[in-house]
Amino acid sequence: MEIVILPDTTAIGALAADAIVNLVQRKPDAVLGLATGSSPLAIYDELAARYAAGQVSFAQARGFTLDEYVGLPADHPETYRNVIHKDFVDRVDFAEGAVRGPDGLATDIPAFCAAYEDAIVAAGGVDLQILGIGTVGHIGFNEPGSSLASRTRIKTLTRQTRIDNARFFGGDVDAVPTHCLTQGLGTIMAARHIVLVATGPQKAEAVHHLVEGAVSALWPGTILQHHPHVTVLLDGAAASRLQLADYYRETYQAKPAWQGI
Question: Where is the Glucosamine/galactosamine-6-phosphate isomerase domain (predicted)?
Answer without folding.
Answer: 13-226
